[in-house]
Write a structure and sequence with these properties.
Length: 234
């Protein structure tokens, strides 16, 4: 049956691939964007997840169009990379507020409807950086590591209502962000990856749709690395 799916940050890169994968399955898909550009067939919901009122309005719009959210994919995120001693309070706060607190907001709001339905899937898009760390990304790594604790706590809180909470941790992915790297930088990255290449956004989406599907009904509190072996499960 067609489900109500919400993907935050679904207008480009990994989020767009995830939204398109659910659309291909016949699901009713809504995506949050700040400036538009949702995939064809998806409901384009303008929302800044750092604004609590905007999050509430976005869910009201999705629920009116598609019904209560049954699958939430919390993907929206930002980076403000710099070394620790150069990192400003704003650099820290912006990343934490978007990646971690914004995800808390959408997960809390989605959970209300899921509890009433006694079913639901919460899927958080983290990063291999949140597990391994990365110089120059203290803020980003902290925010992505925080999603693991959030998901596992929610798995314990909500599991009795048949709501699962899981994390997908991508490694390096072919997106606009990696396309700007030089050939030398890309070669050095690929040398660290046992499979010797980047992931495609579709490979991340495949892990997400699996977690949302019937085959993963007994999987909760898990971290699924899709990183070509870079993190070796850590």
């Amino acid at each position: 049956m067609s489900r109500s799916v919400l993907v935050t940050g679904g207008n480009r890169g990994i989020g767009r691939a995830i939204a398109e994968a659910f659309l291909a399955q016949g699901d009713k898909v809504a995506v949050t964007t700040r400036n538009g550009g949702a995939p064809e067939g998806a409901l384009d919901v303008r929302c800044d997840i750092t604004d609590p009122d905007a999050v509430e309005a976005a869910f009201a719009q999705v629920e009116e169009a598609h019904g209560p959210v049954e699958v939430l994919v919390a993907n929206a995120g930002v980076t403000k990379d710099t070394l620790l001693l150069r990192m400003s309070e704003d650099d820290w706060n912006t990343v934490i507020e978007t990646n971690l607190t914004g995800t808390f907001r959408v997960a809390k709001r989605a959970s209300k409807g899921m509890l009433r339905q006694r079913k639901g899937r919460l899927i958080f898009i983290s990063s291999v950086v949140g597990l391994l760390g990365s110089a120059g990304q203290v803020n980003y790594a902290a925010s992505k590591a925080g999603l693991v604790g959030m998901a596992r706590s929610l798995a314990r809180e909500l599991g009795s209502r048949s709501i699962t909470a899981n994390v997908v941790a991508p490694g390096f992915v072919e997106t606009d962000m990696t396309a700007v790297l030089t050939d030398d930088q890309q070669a050095k990255i690929k040398d660290q990856v046992p499979l010797g290449r980047y992931a495609s956004p579709d490979e991340i989406a495949a892990a997400v749709t699996w977690l949302a599907g019937d085959g993963a009904a007994y999987v909760t509190g898990a971290v699924i690395p899709v990183d070509g072996g870079l993190g070796m499960g850590h």
